[in-house]
Amino acid sequence: LQAYERRFPTCPLIPMFVASDTVNEYKSEDEAIHVIERRCKLDIDAPRLLKKIAGVDYVYFVQKNSLNRRERTLHIEAYNETFSNRVIINEHCSYTVHPDNEDWTCFEQSASLDIKSFFGFESTVEKIAMKQYTSNIKKGKEIIEYYLKQLEEEGITFVPRWTPPVACKSESSTSHPRRPVSPAINIPESATKEGLNNKEILNSSSSPSEPTAGTPDDKLDADYIKRYLGDLTPMQESCLIRLRQWLQETHKGKIPKDEHILRFLRARDFNIDKAREILCQSLTWRKQHQVDYILDTWNPPQVLQDYYAGGWHHHDKDGRPLYVLRLGQMDTKGLVRALGEEALLRYVLSINEEGLRRCEENTKVFGRPISSWTCLVDLEGLNMRHLWRPGVKALLRIIEVVEANYPETLGRLLILRAPRVFPVLWTLVSPFIDDNTRKKFLIYAGNDYQGPGGLLDYIDKEIIPDFLGGECMCEVPEGGLVPKSLYRTAEELENEDIKLWTETIYQSASVFKGAPHEVLIQIVDASSVITWDFDVCKGDIVFNIFHSKRAPQPPKKDSLGAHSITSPGGNNVQLIDKVWQLGRDYSMVESPLICKEGESVQGSHVTRWPGFYILQWKFHSMPACATTNLPRVDDVLASLQVSSHKCKVMYYTEVIGSEDFRGSMTSLESSHSGFSQLSAATTSSSQSHSSSMVSR
Q1: Which of 121, 140, 324, 548 makes a 20 to 30 Å CA pair with 220?
Q2: Nearest-CA neighbor of 258 among 238, 279, 275, 241?
Q3: pTM for the complete prediction?
Q4: What is the DSSP secondary-structure string of 485-496?
Q5: Contacts of 325 (CB under 8 A, 6+ apart)
Q6: Which Pfam families match (predicted)?
Q7: Chain-centre distance of CA 182, in angstroms?
């Protein structure tokens, strides 16, 4: 309280606090109760126009401090006097003794704002009020520490606890022995954050690891904290103990280590309720998918070992394990197509589990707590093919799983050689990344990482990888394009043993001579965008897009008519009725696109009318020679390679709004140069606002 009282009548650390006057004061005879009421003058940081409209330069608040030395409580109430008929602001703070340790102090703060009317600027006033309130909360710790230090410099390091007057004391001394006097409190790192109902526990100058009588398990050993957990305030230590005890009493499975519990507490700013919720969800997830055993029971496929351009590489200057990822050299589409999302997720989980293990090892090696790792991402080679929508979706799902189950494990992320396309990828990914995690990102364009504030600030020169100009050989795979011969069908990917998320987004279809495969897409809003991505796995096909104002008959699995051939490897659905006539019942909105075996096709179509759109993959018949009805020798040889006149495609389609499409990089209208080395031909139709890309 002595430190707090020094904020009055004015405080240089709070520029908006201009002055204050005492309007009322009361002290009880035994000095146990002290109530003081002040009128405070504030210069609110608001637009000059708003102040002019309101007709004021300053606003006034009334603050009432009620100190009860007998019960060891301090209550602070504040409300606005200015504009009280238009805006109602109430704030309440309280300091009380911690129930488990009388040398600790609990701090609670809450506030409410009710804007009835304010000259039509209600929204602006609300934003200003929240900004000021948030700023005051963040500044509170700094201010109280400033005045505590000021007291120490004046030689005041101890404030005796209040005791009753002598007469009262003699009456009660026999039945109520006086509790030992504790020294003045020091305020540690604040746990308060934006919002309401913030709580904080404040530390006394006595050792936080010294057990209180009767509660030997309520504290952690100081050496253990320093060696394995790092610097913890008493509040943080208390939260860790309480959450761990709760897990021991209620959780039936494996109890995580203190380091792991601490990560979840830090991820939620030591809000026990929020940390408990996400930790329980994570423990259930780990048990369900046997994540604890992933390093011992799962071996990554050879494709990952050959083409996933990432791996562990020594450690940074802080002793954190260093993971290197050459994202620009990685064929994300090829990996998804060859492995499916499940295997990719499983591999990323194994990397995180290995990271946890390496953190424990480095903690032992360096003799200090190391709970996170550093990730170095090289974007050299990143281009439009990395922004392939299914690949980006897979990345977002991986980020979502990792954020939920491995919080506070990323100590620093160094992004090097970011190309021009990187801001687009960042725009897509950053909303899914926690704010605390985003603050750990350092991004370097070009060769900026070689200059001041670059890589040498975080990694020793001796271990900078060779591909970044260093002398250390890095054994991370170089990546490269995954051969299409390794691609797998949707059915093969669906046979994975355990699903950690939704099934693959790709579907497979068989196309026969006389039996095309068709997909129906209903469009309600004109100017929607239909996007597609497909691979021709077998044979040659013709891709068409049609529009109809009326819905076709419900799709039926075709028995393939005269062929009487079933389709075990894929779907075959026909929608266009045989009695329908082109130009009368439906119309073609795109020129036919001939796609050869082995080609990948990505495209988009901006719809001009609502209704029903049909995407069609049709068997491509070899054209006969122009001067004779006999087929050419090349055509005959080519037709022999397509057994039973059967083709196979794997496809993915999606409909998105045009306003989202333009900025999402799914738009292939702007992607013609993006797939550089993969692109072989491009077909576009400006009339229908569509574009397609073929890559071999």
Answers
A1: 140
A2: 241
A3: 0.48
A4: GG---HHHHHT-
A5: 309, 310, 375, 376, 377, 378, 476
A6: CRAL_TRIO (PF00650), CRAL_TRIO_N (PF03765), PRELI (PF04707)
A7: 44
Give the residue, 341 or 644, on which the prediction is more confident: 341
Report the C-alpha gap between 558 and 515 in whole angstroms: 8
650: Cβ contacts below 8 Å, ≥ 6 apart: 337, 487, 489, 490, 506, 507, 508, 509, 534, 535, 537
User: What's the Cα-to-Cα distance from 292 to each of 168, 246, 288, rounded to whole Å?
Assistant: 62, 21, 10
The reported pLDDT for the residue numbered 356 is 94
* Residue 23: count of CB within 10 angstroms of its CB: 12
The residue extents of the domains of the chain are 1-154, 222-289, 292-485, 504-552+572-621+644-662
Alpha-carbon distances of 358 from 74, 322, 354, 475, 495, rounded to whole Å? 47, 10, 6, 18, 33
Q: Which residue has the higher pLDDT, 516 or 104?
A: 516
CA 75 to chain centre: 38
- Nearest partner of 100 among 205, 226, 242, judged by Cα: 242
Task: Taking each helix axis as running N to C, give the angle between helix 272-288 and helix 389-405, from 0 to 180 degrees, rounded to the nearest 10.
Answer: 120
For the domain 292-485, what is the CATH code? 3.40.525.10
Work out the average pLDDT over 475-504.
69
Q: Which two tokens stand for residue 325?
A: 């990822």
Q: Which CATH class is domain 1-154?
A: alpha beta
Q: In this predicted structure, what is the pLDDT of residue 182?
A: 35
CA angle 681, 686, 690 (to 5 degrees): 65
Name the CATH superfamily for 504-552+572-621+644-662: GOLD domain (2.60.120.680)
State both tokens at 224.
Answer: 């253990």
The CATH number assigned to the domain with range 222-289 reads: 1.10.8.20
Cα gap 30→463, rounded to integer Å: 69
DSSP code, position 218: S
